[in-house]
Amino acid sequence: MSFSGRVKEELVGQIGTPRHCQIAELASLFCFCGKIEVDPMHHIKVRFHAENDRVIRKCFTLIKKTFNINTCILGQGPFSLEISGEEEIKRLLQTMKIMDANSGTLQRTDIVNPLLLKSTCCRRAFLRGAYMVVGSMSDPEKSYHLEFVCDTVQAAQQLREVMAGFDLEAKMIERKGRQVVYIKEGTAIVDLLNIMEAHVSLMSLENLRIVKEVRNSVNRRVNCEAANIRKTVNASSKQIEDITLLRDRIGLKNLPDSLREMAEVRLEYPEATLSELGTYLEPPVGKSGVNHRLRKLSELAEEIR
Length: 305
Known about the structure:
The protein has 305 residues and is an alpha+beta fold. 57% of the residues lie in helices and 13% in strands.
């Protein structure tokens, strides 16, 4: 099972205790995968339709728990859940504020009525429902990317607004005629999992992030040390080349004592660092002093060239 699938599996069992949270989550599920159907006899049906059986399981649990309504589950992928009782449908739609209790007229269904999202716990439930239907997440071992794919701009904007209320900045783009709300930052994805109360998935993601950060830190250190070694080797090769030229053209004995000693030590210890070279001189010299003498030797070699 993918990481995204494990998150959804965890969210199936995550149901808010207060009834208003259950209603908010059911309204979210209906917004993204529900529809109202009218047959030729003008009988109304409410149907939840999803490719994922987890979504239908969650709808079934919430409807049973919140309204004590019996439902019928149809199909084996795609999956459907149907409610056909007139009174049950009226109660369900009125509670989700999709049907006006006085006039019986239907309201818009592409967003959740803001009156259902006044409490923080209800907004958490709303995000759970949205992720169950239109959310997905890439494998965190490869990259950090979580997104919601919405049919309408209004639904996408509502998602962004709800996340913004939790200080999460999500971006929105259009892809193949649909609106995509996405987060690409690991910390923000962790925060969203926490908001949706997917705590097991959160801990798994945090563990993966720690491993990746340690691995990246080790790689950076290794690369840095390798670069330093290459730099030292290249510098040493150039210094030995200059000293060899001086030895062959004018002889090291004709150099000032400090430079002659420096040249002899470098030839004897070609792989030593500047700090190590300084300890081989008599008296010992610091790194800056060694660097100064080697630079002088280089300048003399350049003059000969």
